[in-house]
Amino acid sequence: MQSFQKALIIQARVIGAIILRDMRTRFGRSHLGYLIAIIWPLAHAFFILLAYTLANRVAPIGGDPVVFVSTGVIPYIMCFYPARMMTFSVESNKALLLFPIIRVSDIIFGRAILEFLTAAVVAVVFSIILVIAFNVNISPISNIDALTGVLASMYFGVCMGFVNTLIMSIFKMWNAVQIIFMLIMYLSAGVLFVPSSLSSEMQDILWFNPLLHCVEWLRSAFYEGYGDELLSKSYLIGVSTLLLFFGLMGERFIRGKIISS
């Protein structure tokens, strides 16, 4: 038992050191670099928000387009940025694998924790700006559903990022492919429209998009009865966990290839 606890402490220290190194190499020694990592997804989110609100004065539901778009954009940002930034974790930290104590999974988990925390900061700052700058009431009907919806979106993004990292180590063009893939998910997730307003045949197709369930989950916290037709929390969590499982198993099988490549 003591040896197991000691191993956990050592691994936690290793991952912590990787996170600190990752922050310094990616963002520099000043705090300005990390601010850029927060500002970039914020700018992305507000660009989508501004474009929609200028084109549409009234949202399909609720009346306020700012709340409607925000509840769609936040899950997308929470998924896209962690998944994309995790893709380069092994490539940018491959030199660390020369140390026997460091494993490929340590590097991936280190980046996953860093991106998870960054996404959480982005969500909080985004909400504060909506209240102060836009004077928008973003109080949800259910605080629990709002919190779990954001966390579920971040969890899906991190799990997808785990798989992306392994694919990237074998298929170097995967970065371009995943951007196209995420764009398709974004366009079909109901970020800017209400999926339940589409035909039943189209709903059956879009239902398999996990990002759609991220959006439906968060919106269900703001609109009474929203998501009753399409939202499946178990499907989203199941797909995310399955991606994490494949990522962990894949890391064991291609560990040697990653180190030698």
Brief sketch in words of this structure:
The protein is mainly alpha-helical and 261 residues long. Helix content is 74%, strand content 0%.
Please characterize this protein's 3D structure.
The chain is mainly alpha-helical and about 260 residues long. It has eleven helices and no strands. Helix 2 packs across helix 3 (about 65-85) and helix 9 (about 210-220) crosses helix 10. The two termini are about 35 Å apart.
Radius of gyration over all CA atoms, rounded: 19 Å
Which percent range fits the helix content?
Answer: over 70%
Count up the helices. Answer: 11
Low-confidence parts lasting 5 or more residues at pLDDT below 50? none
Average predicted confidence as pLDDT: 85
Biggest β-sheet, characterized? none
Please report the total strand number as a whole number. 0
Structural class: mainly alpha
Globally, the shape reads globular
For the termini, the CA-CA separation is: 37 Å
What order do the SSEs take from the amino end to the carboxyl end, as H and E? HHHHHHHHHHH
* Fraction in beta strands: under 5%
Attribute tags:
261 residues; mainly alpha; 0% strand
